[in-house]
């Protein structure tokens, strides 16, 4: 499901310095920089979209890979999930959920070098709910710091573990503040500061933004929000040289003080912004994006809700300005991002739109092989676009569209993507010939009027879907629903390794 730059220590992510060759994943939601307790030479990708990650060198990841090339290992994990992995040192942490009623929540640790499953912590869901492929499944990405990993699940569980898998504290947000009222599930990833974990709960019941003490798990503050349906994750951005939590979520864009939870400003001339994270490209500048929805039911709102915004302090107030808009570029789940001065959107049929980030002038519109459910990654002179069906397209950074590589994570990824795009195109043609009633066509669960959902092995929207990734120098870790893959530069003569499936023992470290 989108990273950003807001600190001189992460300036490698900024477009001005990215061109110098120090790189950051733009999939990271910007980041007010690493908390003081995280100052370290340890390689890390500690949060959603790489927030607080160490800089990547331009030649640290391979340009090409395939099921038989540059895959160092792949490991099956318990259950299924859509969250991105996070990395601290030599450990990868990832979450998943298991059971017909989302009965069990898993936090798993793996060895980065070999993919060995180190431990599997399992806990019972606070609010069991029937799981299916049309809503989130363990979509919130955890965060990790030097001492702990913090995880949140759409069933209400919020917990902290040490790096060896021992539970330090746990709480149920549904018991504390009421059960979640959701049709699409919850997917907002965690945000962290030096001493606080921040959770966004946007749903059809009473919504809120919550700050929890890292050490104790106790509430530091809670700010109420209006009810809404949304998958969107917040970001910690720099505005007027100070940190703010910025939430772009189904009907508003809001800025909060991370110390107190006070609402500092709000912008409500937006709609359809239910999935993407606001990504920074300078102090107070960030991208806002919105999707037209499964049946284009939010098309009118989405056309006016993809733009570059700047927020500035004017006296005691914060002023919001739209710098430029695009009415055609509308994403699905992958957030648009800025890299080396250019802004990139990818729509639901795999078309990439490129704009000048300062002026909004269109640079090009070109087609990729697949839509992206993860935010693109900028690295050196390349941009990696992780396709939903497992085909990652690598293009040259800059104003000329040039494909450098097309990489399959799994056999058949290209074919699966082509079939999906064909299905979407055919469904779109049928939509255009059917009167629009504003409702769902009977019997259609695909999110495309007139079309049936694509299946694999009889399972609708089943694995493999390429969801998210994490990266440190020398390793790109990709996640499908039930597996992790590690991509590295491997000499042709070297033999790839494969991890083993872990045995669950109710949360005890293995």
Automatic annotation (TrEMBL):
The record places domain Pyrrolo-quinoline quinone repeat at 69-195, 321-395
Per the record, which residues fall in region Disordered? Answer: 424-459
Source species of the chain: Gimesia fumaroli
Q: Which InterPro entries match?
A: PQQ_b-propeller_rpt, PQQ_rpt_dom, Quinoprotein_ADH-like_sf, WD40/YVTN_repeat-like_dom_sf
**Protein's name according to its UniProt entry:** Outer membrane biogenesis protein BamB
Tell me which domain of life the UniProt entry assigns to the organism this sequence originates from.
Bacteria
Name any one Pfam family assigned in the record: PQQ_2
Q: Tell me which SMART domains the record gives.
A: PQQ
